[in-house]
UniProtKB/TrEMBL annotation:
SUPFAM superfamilies (UniProt xref): FMN-dependent nitroreductase-like
Molecular function via GO: oxidoreductase activity
Designated name of the protein: Nitroreductase domain-containing protein
Taxonomy, superkingdom: Bacteria
Amino acid sequence: MILSDEQKASLIDAGIRAPSADNSQPWKYQWDNASELSIWRDAELSGFATDKTFILTDLAIGCVIESIRLKALESKLNAEIVYCPSDESEKIATLVFTSSASNTPPLPNEKANKKVVDETASDRELASYIEARCTDRRFPYKGPVTESESLALAGAVNDKDYALNVYTDKAAIAQFLPSIKEAEQIRFECASLHQELFQTIVFDQPAPDKGMTPAMLSIEPIARPMFRLMATWRTMQKLNKIGTSKMIAMRSVTLPFKLSPAMCVLTTKSTSRIDIIKAGQQMLRFWLKATQLGLSVHPYAAPGVLPLAKPDVGEPYLSRLSNVKRNVDSEVANGQQVIMFFRVGRCAGTPTTSCRRSADSLKK
Ligand SMILES: Cc1cc2nc3c(=O)[nH]c(=O)nc-3n(C[C@H](O)[C@H](O)[C@H](O)COP(=O)(O)O)c2cc1C
């Protein structure tokens, strides 16, 4: 199978549009031949404090892989994924493309045939939302998120080792908020996490090709000068003495969740590197389904991801993070581990969206 330059460009474009933590886009690609694409982590953009185990990078690359796989399906191609992450190698996976017409396996009976055809059709439909998907940090979100929408969101997950729990009951959502707040608060109280967070924020360009501006973070114009002052650790330390990290957690967690009709939680059975990459694939599937339903999505990674990243932050932060993990895992009560929280609902208009690196700059 030989892919045309146009087909290759369209697949890479789908990968580029995938989400990544802090809009870091920590990946690279290489066409090994006319139908095989290898995906690598970008060594310069991965492995920092909150990514010590490559968890954020692997989640982002999972999103990239699923985005390319869905785009391939939409273009009548199959993509077989060969995973190969290891700490030594920067190579994460190879996608092998074949024509879906020539490669459809013979099916034993009509029922099985219909199931595959239905799944392919719904995946192709998901692919058509790759361009529209975005992070929406605005609030309030309006409701309701209906029962059938909740089922559709949960049903976007197509691997039994993962689950997407949807909560629309205010009391059920409230149970998670202290843990989410605690994890967000730590990011402003611990020097290395604070430094990493502010390194990704771009104050002096309106449309950087990676990272995010205060507008993209939905920080109100009136609060932006103060937010800029917080970028200096000494200032942040002083502000924390008057409770600023707690106020930030209220503003970024309590208020937005209280003013949203639904919370979704993605959980996983295993946290091996391959399973985290696959969690990223499931995350993108859920997010595209939400986009299809006209729902806004705002992810919260810190409570699930920070404890798994095991950053070198010392005490008391490590104990605080372990408590967060214990609490959120026990609250989802499905025997799995929490990866990510999402605030979900409806919000009119469009948020300020982030920009992307060029396809050329992502070449290995
Ligand atoms: C693994 C992962 C973790 C993320 N964590 C957060 C988060 O904790 N808070 C947040 O506001 N956005 C989070 N995001 C959203 C990214 O910041 C966003 O995807 C990126 O800036 C690109 O913007 P877009 O989603 O609008 O394309 C996360 C995204 C991914 C893939």
